[in-house]
Amino acid sequence: MKLLLLLPLLLVTEATFFVSPDGSDSNDGTQASPFLTLTRAKEAANLENEPSTCQISLASGRHELPTPFVLTAADVPCSFVSGDADSPAVISGGVLLDNKHFTEHDNTLLSYDLSNSFPDPSPFGEIRTGTLGDCANSQSQLFSSTTPTNLARYPNVDQQTQLWDFVSISSACDSDPSESPCLSEFTVTGDDAARLAALTPPFFIHGYWSFDWADNHVRVVSVTANDANSTTLKIDPETNPLYGFLPNARFVVENILNELDDASEFLIDRDLKVLYAHASLDLSADLVVSKSESVLSFQDAKGFTFTNLVFSDSQATLVSGTGSGIAFESCAFRNAGGDGVKITGTDIIINNSSLTTAGCSGISLTGGDRVELTSSGNVVSGSVLKDYGRWKRTYMPGVGFGGDGIRIENNEISQAPHQGIYGSGNDHLIQNNYLHDLCVESSDSGAFYTGRSWSNRGNVFAGNRIENVRPLTPTKLGYLVVMGVYLDDQMSGWAIENNTFVNVMQGALLGGGRDNVFRGNYFENCDVGIEFDCRGLTWDVDNCVVGGPFEKDLESFDYLEGVWSEKYPAVVTTFDVEGGSKPCTPQWNVIADNSFCSCQEGVSAYDGADADNTLIEFLFLISRQGKTRLTKWYGQYTVSERARAVRDVTNLVLSRPPKQCAFIEWKDKKIIYKRYASLFFVAAIGNGDNELITLEKIHLFVEILDSYNSVLKSCGTMDDMMDDEKEGGAGGSGRRNSSKK
All domains of the chain, ordered by start, with CATH? Predict the structure, then answer.
C-alpha cells in the first residue's frame, strides 16, 4: 500500500539548468558548472524525458546574443528566471563596447572601429522609409546607460525636455497638391536654407509631410542652393513621403556626420564599419551597439515563463512571434530599435514589468477569434511604459491590441509623441490605467485611439485617468486638436465610463458612431469635455451606406445569426432600413451623468450635428402633481441654478392649458414638453435649435423606455403611457388611471 502511494511522487521530474556569462557550453549546466548560452540550456532541457518542471536560471550580468534566441512548439516548456533577484540578468542583442578603444577622430568627434565585433558584410541594417503605422526599423544603434541617443541630426533634440525641433518647408513642387501629391522636391527659405545647402547628399530626412499624424523617412539625393536664402532638396523616388509634401510641413535632417554635435547623437559609417560619437560622450557609461535583429523570438511556442529578466538592445523588435501560455513577470524591456514586444497568440501575460526607450511601439498583443468571439486571454497589467516612438513617431502606441478579449489594466503610459493605447477588435477591457503626457508632437490624435469599424463590439474603457494631453511642439498641418479618448470615423460599440480627464485639450471625441456610451466621466481643465458629430451624414457617408465598407465588414462575421446575433443583438438591425434603422445617423449613443469643471465647453457638436442633432441642455420628468421624478443635466449648471430651473420650469409647464403649444421660451432657452399619462417629459434646448426634432426625440425616448420596460413603472406603466398617446395624445383625454405608485 505504501509503495502504491509513493508511485505518483516518483513520476515527478525536475530539470534545472544554469547559465552564466562566465560559463561554457561544454559544461554540464549545473550551478557549479553552468552553460554559457541559452541555446545550450534549451537543448539540454529538450533532451530530458518530458520533465514535469523545467527551470533555466540566469546568473547576473550580460548574456549577449549575436542572433535571436528562438523558442518553438518543439521545445520543452521552461521557466527562465534571474538567479539573483536583486541583480537581474540582462539578455542583450548588442555588443558592449570597450570604451578605451574610442579614439579621437578630430577636435569634436570620437571614433570606434566596429569591424571585429561586426564581421558580416552588411551587419548594421538599413534606414527604411516606412508607411503609416509601419515601424520598418531594423538597424544598429548606439545605446547608452545614461543618455538616449539619436542619429546625428539637425535640429537637435532638447535634452532637458526631449522635445524635437523642426525645419519647415516653404514650398513644394509646382503642381496643385489637390490634383496630385508632391513627391519629388521641396524648397526651404530663411535661416535654415544656408545650413541645408552645406550638406552633402545622400542623407535622410524625417518629417510630417501632409498631416501632423503621419510621419516617415525619405532619402535626399541632391541639394541645390537657389540663393543665399533658398535651398531645394530632391528626393529619391524609391522613398516617397507619406501623402506628399506640403508647405509648412516640418522635418529633421538625420544620419549626416557634419551634424553630429551633441553627446546624444551617433553615426555609423556602414562601409568603413566605424562608429562616430561626440567628444562629450560619457565614456564612464555602458555603451552598447545593437547587433541582433531581435532578442527573443517565439514560433508557436507554448508554456514559457520569464521572471525578473532584462531584455535589451535590438536592431528591430526586442521580443516577437507567436505562441500561447507565455508569461513575463517583473521583466524590463529597453533599448528596442523597433517595437518592444509584439506577440500574436493566446494567454500571453505581461505583468508588473517596464518598457523604456523603444524606436516604435511599446507592447502589442493580438489574439483570440473574432468570428467565433473566443477570448485571447491576453493581458498587459501593472506595468510602466514610457519613451517609445523614438524612431517612428505616429501610430506607435504604448500598448497596442487586436483580436478578441484583451485586458489592459493598471498600467502607467507616458512620454510619447502620439498615442498611449491603440487598437481594434471585440470584448476588450481597458481599465484603471494612467495615461499622461501623450500626443505631445501630433495633432488630430488621441491618448486612447480607435476607429472606423462597426464590427468592434463589447469593448469597455473604464476607470482610467488621462492627464496632460496637449501638443507641446507646434503643429502646422491638419486638424489642430488632440483628445483623451478618440473614437474616430464612426467607431461603434464602446463604453467609455467613469474615467477622469485632467488638462486634456479635448476630453473625448465621438466621431459619428453608433451604440457608444459616455457615462459618469469627470472632465477638469479641458478646452472641450465631449465633442460629437454626425460625419456619416456628411463627408464620411461612403463608409456607412448600405453595401458600403462597414456593412461588408459586418458580413464577414456572419453578424445576422449565430454567436454574433446572440452577443450583439443591436448590430443585427443596423442595416434594417425598413425597420427604422438609419445606418449613417449616429443612433443609440448615450452621453449621460458626466461632470465638467473649469472646461470652456462641456458637450459640443460639429460637422452638421448642430443643425441636425439638437443638443438637449437638461431633461426632466415631472408628475401632474409637480413632483420631480427625474432630472438629467447635459449642460453646465451650478447646484443653485439647477434648483431654480426645476422650480421655474415645473411651474411653467403645469400652468399651461392642455391645448396650448408645447413650446415655451424661458430665459435664453426653449422648453419643449409632452405629457404621457401622469408624466410630463420636459427638455431644454437653445433658442436657435429645432423644436420639432426635440419633440420627436422625446417621443422616441418614451418608445425606448416602453420597449425596455423601464423603471418608470413606478410612475405608471409604460403600457398606460403609450396607450394614452395612441388614444388621446399629449393632452391626456384618453388617460387611464394607474393603481401603481
Answer: 1-89 (3.30.1910), 95-152+260-287 (no CATH), 167-258 (2.40.30), 299-432 (no CATH), 444-462+473-613 (no CATH), 614-728 (3.30.450.60)
